Amino acid sequence: MPDNILVMQSITKLYPGVKALDNVNLEVQRGEIHALVGENGAGKSTLMNVLSGTIPFGEYEGKILFNGSECQFKRIHDSEKLGIVIIHQELALIPELSIGENMFLGNERNGKLGIDWNETYSQATKHLEEVGLKDKATTLIKDIGTGKQQLVEIAKALSKNVKLLILDEPTSSLNEEDSKMLLDMLLQFKKQGMTSIIISHKLSEVAYVADRITVLRDGATIETIDNEDRTIDEDRIIKGMVGRELTNRFPAREHKVSEEIGLEVKNWVVHHPIYTEKQVVNGVSFHVHKGEIVGFSGLQGAGRTELAMSLFGKSYGSGISGREYLNGKEVHLKTEEDAIEHGLAYVTEDRKTNGLVLIDTIAKNTTMARLKKVCDKHGVIDVGMENHVAEKYVKVMNIKTPTVQQLVGNLSGGNQQKVLLSKWMFADPDVLILDEPTRGIDVGAKYEIYCIMNDMVAQGKSVVMISSELPELLGMCDRIYVMNEGSLVAEMSRDEATQEKIMGAILHSDKKGISEEQKEA
Amino acid sequence: MTKASSIIKKYTMTIALVVVFIFFTVLTNGRLVYAQNISNLLLQNAYVLVMACGMLLCILTGGNVDLSVGATLCLVGAVAAQLMDQNSMGALPTILIAMLIAAVIGIWQGFWIGYIHIPPFIATLAGMFLFRGLGRVVLASKTVNIQNEAFLNTFISYIDVPGMDTKSFHVSALIVGVAVAVLLTVLMLSGRAKKVKKNYAADSLVTTLVKVIIIDALIIAYCWKLANYKGIPVMLLWILLVVLIFAFITMKTAFGRYFYAVGGNEKAAKLSGIDPRRVYFWAYFLMSVLAGFSGLLVAARIGSVDGNMGNSYEMDAIAACFIGGASAYGGSGTVSGIMIGAILLGVMNQGMSIYGLPDEWQYVVKGAVLLAAVIFDVVSNHKVGKQ
């Protein structure tokens, strides 16, 4: 008889018209790391919302047993009292407050008169040590990176005396190195007896960290796979998620790279927009042929996004210098509008903040980057034509929506990403820079986006792909550039490149030295 | 059931307007629908209708408002009154110079807000003091009367066709009403036919017909009332001109679409090649121009200008927008919606005045209605977002 810390029995949750969860069962053993996987919309988040009390007792059917006794959580506070803490994908930290203040937000250490700050900061420091964060507890959240913010969230959970830690896509905004660190920390906590549930799209991480894996599909439990010995094959998990064998994770493509060059950059230098003396990109030169997909690899903060955005009409940085050529002609792009006019597109890594107008329709988002194409010469929009165009892209991109009048905010992550791509396809660029084009979307949608990329290069466009997922760079690109701390440190062809070589290139260039052990990652 | 509730949701404010209208008609024993009162309804609220169009643009950019419009209205009105009084200038050059000053004010406001990134609330608060003060300087703290006939006729006369219209009944108003109704019917039906032909989504024929009939009936009824009073007021034409231009801009042009994009997600708009600075500039520029124009309308209607003219008018324009469904967070709102909001405010104002509700209670009622409208907006949108 396994020692279950948590049992969820026959959980069913209905939304008007949709069965989000259909008789779902989940058993989590004490002291294990349990992974929850499934495509977007499979019901993972809904299930966790039921568990945490975000969906209160009474609005779902079924039973939750924690430590053997039945629980009826009416709000998050109820589940937290028992030590169930959930860390959401979008971090809930307040940028202008310090680490310590954030950690005890809503749970303040009170003294005789108001908050006891000495107690707050000494406890915060204790928990920060546990997660291996060396920053002071008085540091403001806005002054530390996303990776460290994730650690603060975990420290915050520890301060709540956590028994069951739930992490929803904890590594989606982290680079490989930080992700590895976080996963190793979970394994460390496991040794100390903590139980965790991790929701993730990154199957390599799931395979690395999880003892058991539960697969959800269309709101139902499909199976729970054992991974005690860490030998599971990723394809085995995918089979459960999509319900079929996905033999090729990357669609085949004829590599027909033209001799002509689509984008060329020489000696590109960018300074930080606020700390103008700080150089973010140090004299980078590269080129992309027509019909070629070129990857940019590197750690977070390597300067890839900064390079891309500064090339796109100086939308990032200050003191930019260097030469930029499109289709062989030198261009001086001063604004984003200039860049679009010259056939350059930058598809942001952050679709919600920088990419889409969530309160507008699919149709309006689709035409946004080149509204003129559906206007007459006086700038009057032909709404009929606009809808027509949007409908075309919905069909081509296989966007799941009843109509193009649907608000983009109501779509799933994968479908939002497809609308974002539609928008830039409609702008009809010659060169596309895709920044993390598959972040936070499921396997099926990833495959479709790879197909779209292949279509683009088949049309003779040039594609630059910035990604933190090495397998996808290796699977998709003709050539890969490696960046570290603002400089290009290596260039590899498709045949040369391996994960080890790329990581090696990053680490060798880094004189400050990351230890040899981590290099193995 | 879902269809009925979605119709109710879509036309909430229209339904509210009908209910409030009937309520005050009953409460005032029908005095609200006297020809004179119907005719005055829009004229008395001309400044709200006109300025709400500009305020909508400001609100679209992100829930920002322009607090300076009441003061701008006063300053422009003051300049016009003084030019005609002191310098005995003609109507046309006076109007041109007044509008030029409104444009300069717009450039001033738009520049600071758009290009120097002064928060709109602060920039326009400063403008409110500045222009109010300047207005009083121009007036030398006196009330200046307007006697220029040509100026007054441009804004407050009524259309009177000799030989056709009589003192008791202005046939011209009715003819125009019927003509507009016919034209609208043709336009709406042909528009629908075009959509159907190209396979675009369109309303069903019945829905279109019902809409056409209701709107036509309202237009003809309104014109009937006008015909029974003094005919078509020129000011009504000015209001219609402004409203139609702004409805066209916001619905049909790329320029108008940019306001929604910037308000919906400024960063995404910028990365799509839309310059937010330009959008902010135009919002506040056009707002000031409309405030200036309202200054002329109000000055003509009152017949004089004093240093308190336009006090708290900005709040009426802002209230009309929010009652009319513009989002307090920016990015959504329509001209037709805010017109309903403005007329709703107007009906309440007039209804309460005719009924004789004391001023202090009028404020209480207006405040309650504004709050209720915004609560409704926030709550109903929240529900949609959750599903």
TrEMBL record, chain A:
InterPro entries: AAA+_ATPase, ABC_carbohydrate_import_ATPase, ABC_transporter-like_ATP-bd, ABC_transporter-like_CS, P-loop_NTPase
Residues of the signal peptide: none
Pfam families: ABC_tran
Record carries keyword Manganese: no
GO molecular-function terms, A-Z: ATP binding; ATP hydrolysis activity
UniProt xrefs under Gene3D superfamilies: P-loop containing nucleotide triphosphate hydrolases
Sorted UniProt keywords: ATP-binding, Cell membrane, Membrane, Nucleotide-binding, Repeat, Sugar transport, Translocase, Transport
Residues in ABC transporter domain copies: 6-243, 263-510
SUPFAM superfamilies listed in its UniProt record: P-loop containing nucleoside triphosphate hydrolases (SSF52540)
Name of the protein in question: Sugar ABC transporter ATP-binding protein
Annotated organism of origin: Caproicibacter fermentans
Record lineage: Bacteria, Bacillati, Bacillota, Clostridia, Eubacteriales
Gene symbol of the encoding locus: xylG_1
From TrEMBL, chain B:
InterPro entries to which the protein is assigned, alphabetical: ABC_transp_permease
Alphabetical keyword list: Cell inner membrane, Cell membrane, Membrane, Sugar transport, Transmembrane, Transmembrane helix, Transport
Taxonomy, superkingdom: Bacteria
GO CC annotation: plasma membrane
Keyword Cell inner membrane: yes
Cited Pfam families: BPD_transp_2 (PF02653)
Subcellular localization(s) per the UniProt record: Cell membrane
GO molecular function annotation: transmembrane transporter activity
TM annotation in the entry: 45-78, 90-108, 114-134, 171-193, 205-224, 236-260, 280-300, 321-349
Membrane topology recorded in Swiss-Prot or TrEMBL: Multi-pass membrane protein
Purpose: Part of the binding-protein-dependent transport system for D-xylose. Probably responsible for the translocation of the substrate across the membrane.
Stated name of the protein: Xylose transport system permease protein XylH
